[in-house]
Amino acid sequence: MKNLLIILTLGLFIISCNTNQQQMQTTTNPFFTGYGTPYDVPPFDNIENEHFLPAFGEGMKQQTEEINAIVNNTEPPNFENTVVAMDRSGELLTNVRSVFYNLTSANTNEKIQAISKEVAPLLSAHKDNISLNEKLFERVKVVYEQKDELAALNTEQLMLLDKTYKRFVRGGANLEDDQKDKFRKINEELSVLTVEFDDNLLAETNSFQLIIENEEDLSGLPDFVKDVGAADAKAAGLESKWLYTLHKPSMIPFLQYEDNRAFREKIFKGYINRGNNDNEFDNKRIAAKMAKLRVERANLLGYESHAAYVLDVNMAKTPDKVYELMDQVWEAALPIAKKEAIELQKMIDAEGEDYKLEPWDWWYYAEKLRKEKYALDDELLKPYFELENVRTGMLDVATKLYGLTFEERFDMPKPHEDARTFEVFDNDGTHQAVLIMDFFPRPSKQSGAWMSSYRKQYKVEGEDISPVITMVMNFSKPTADRPSLLTFDEVSTMFHEFGHALHGMLSDCTYEMLSGTSVSRDFVELPSQIMENWAAEPEVLKTYAKHYETSEPIPQELIDKMNASKHFNQGFATVEFTAAAYLDMAWHTLTIPEEKDAIAFENEAMKKIGLIPEIVVRYRSFYFAHIFAGGYSSGYYSYQWAEVLDADAFEAFKETSLFDQETAKAFRENILEKGGTDDPMKLYKQFRGAEPSTEPMLKRKGLI
After folding, report:
1. pLDDT averaged over consecutive 10-residue blocks of the chain (704 residues)?
2. Active site residue 213
3. Which of 39, 245, 318, 360 has its CA 20 to 30 A from that of 230?
4. What is the pLDDT of residue 26?
């Protein structure tokens, strides 16, 4: 049965790749010929769409042969010939996947989307062919059952053995044959639905346009927001008009400043109804179907729910522990959000308006209130947060903490013309990593911000394979009159993704499966979120916050206002986020596999927690890409879980000094370098000396 599935999988590829495949496998496909670039950065300029399918096919073929060699090894199974051999298998497939899926997220096109749909079920089948290979599992099981006797194995090796064994069990290895067939079908269907969800969301985001023809309709908008609208209109071929889109650098400032309430309502509703327009890009049924299939799969594996399955290998361990944290935060934040809503309504009433505060009004009146209370708004701050200065200041933090230095390279291939490439050197001057930064939105890029890798760090026979890391953001592009200017929220986002990048770049692991950010979902956000703390520290602010026209550093008066207002609107921000974490858990604590009505289900979930009507959950089900197209299903809470960790961890620096070298060394050696080589709480306690308290996080948010 297994061999037949392998043959069918490869047969599908032979059919799909046609007669050109043989030619592509020789001298023209860079995946086969070797990159030949500095530090083996993917040769983006030479990679064509037609290279991917043959490379995927050959990559799966090679890994299948490598797995067969492990299975057919006549020597008794041991750690090296079975567990390590598995970790080393599939190098070509890993290379192809990393390039393809990074481009799918950041620089897609119709051809790439078509390939993604074609290859998704094949990759799912290939993964299942390995996970459900009985002879392979038997070899792993033999080694696993001897682990207590394998005194020569170090902590990292024992963790690789443990995770490899559990990956088989969680991948269905213990199922009966008929259950395995069902398991395969569920995985295949989920792989296709994930691609469809993502493609639909991108199409919906790109299809919305708010075109304004009369300048008087821009009342309230600062010049920088008008400039963005004019530049986007010009890029779209709309002369003498202003265009606003659902990309956040366009939408958020529009909501903050636009006086015309009808326009605010239109763009806000456009955003919150992506995937909910009953058209060919509708995601309601896809989300409901995915949730149903996940329950079925979890039940097959002996778990009550998908959340129970996911959390079993996370720090939280159980849904009850997640709810315990969320309830604590919700009970503190909801009363504050209700007070904020009352205060905004009073402002509306004072202006002589006779309408009730709605979600599309919140950003507008909150910005007005912030200006009234603290004489502070984004228009006042943005001139001090020029993108290049922020980037320089951010890298300088890494230099002061870890001794890293960064040199921009212009001789390396780039995934897009907007991207910037840097070689990263360690504190002794040796090569550490390559870092690619991609800052600006475009129709081919998903919204949001993320870090990923084109190659993870690992070691082969003592040789260190250095990582190639990418940070992807969506900040406003420079205009003819202004450079790219950021809000402070965007500054924090850049520092956040850089924290993830440091986790990938400073990894010092032997096995790829455990390296870098390959940690539990509720631990992975610690390195990213702790970096946000430095962005707001006055000592750091003064190094990068310089007026883009005068180069004058940000005045202390503005820093004082930022500090005074740091708890402003935190009820809204915390409630909006936590509601999304509850929605994620609601979908994934279902125990009966049935397809829900997505709208009714979401409404009931929000009613249950008492979400006030003036606030919309941060991600509605039909555009909640984190959980339906990303890796955060039953894991959106992890940002909040990691906030507990990062607030407590940053106290270690505050107790010494902002750039205390011993503390930085301890954080690097116990957190950043270790990847997933040990239990995360053990690693945290080695750094901090004790388990974290929730109190620093709640205090920082102003919730207690």
Report:
1. 40 44 64 95 97 98 98 97 98 98 96 97 97 98 93 95 97 97 98 97 97 96 93 93 96 97 98 98 98 98 98 97 97 97 98 97 97 93 97 98 98 96 98 98 94 98 95 93 94 98 98 97 96 96 97 96 95 98 98 98 98 98 97 96 95 96 98 98 96 90 87
2. no
3. 360
4. 53
The DSSP secondary structure of 528-576, one letter per residue, reads HHHHHHHHH-HHHHHHH-B-TTT-PBPPHHHHHHHHHTTTTTHHHHHHH
Q: What is the pLDDT of residue 481?
A: 86
Pairing of strands 463-465, 420-425: unpaired
- Exactly one of 296, 497, 576, 643 is catalytic; name it: 497
CB of 367 within 8 A of CB of 471? no
455 near 197, Cβ under 8 Å? no
- Residue 285 to residue 276: CA distance in whole angstroms: 10
As separate numbers, helices (DSSP H) first and strands (DSSP E) second, the chain gives 30, 9
- Amino acid 505: pLDDT: 98
- Domain architecture of the chain: domains with CATH: 2-131+133-170 (1.10.1370.40), 208-272 (no CATH), 383-564+638-700 (1.10.1370.40)
**Closest CA relative to residue 261, chosen from 353, 343, 339:** 353
Give me the long-range contacts of 374-377 (CB less than 8 A, separation at least 24).
374/561, 374/564, 374/565, 374/568, 375/561, 376/558, 376/561, 376/562, 376/565, 377/256
Q: Which of 568, 382, 561 is nearest to 487 (CA)?
A: 382
Structure token digits, residue 665: 């060394």
Which residues in 49-97 belong to E strands, given as ranges? Answer: none
Nearest to 510 by CA among 161, 169, 171: 161
Res 27: pLDDT = 66
What secondary structure does DSSP assign to 116-132, as a single string?
HHHHHHHHHHHHHHHHT
What one-character-per-residue DSSP string does 313-376 give?
TSSS-SHHHHHHHHHHHHHHHHHHHHHHHHHHHHHHHHTT--S---HHHHHHHHHHHHHHHHS-
Q: 104 forms bridges with which residues in the sheet?
A: none
- SS3 of residue 10 by DSSP: helix
**Residue 12's pLDDT is what?**
43
CB 618 within 8 A of CB 252: no
List, as own/partner pairs, every contact residues 523-526 make where C-beta atoms lie below 8 angstroms and the sequence separation is at least 24, other chains included: 523/314, 523/315, 523/638, 523/642, 523/645, 523/680, 523/684, 524/500, 524/638, 524/642, 525/638, 525/639, 525/641, 525/642, 525/643, 525/646, 526/642, 526/645, 526/646, 526/649, 526/671, 526/684
- pLDDT at residue 24, as a whole number: 42
| pTM of the entire predicted model | 0.93
Are the C-beta atoms of 201 and 275 separated by less than 8 Å? yes
Instruction: Produce one character per residue of 604-625: b if its CB has 16 or more CB atoms within 10 Å, e if not.
Output: ebbeebebbebbbbbbbbbbbb
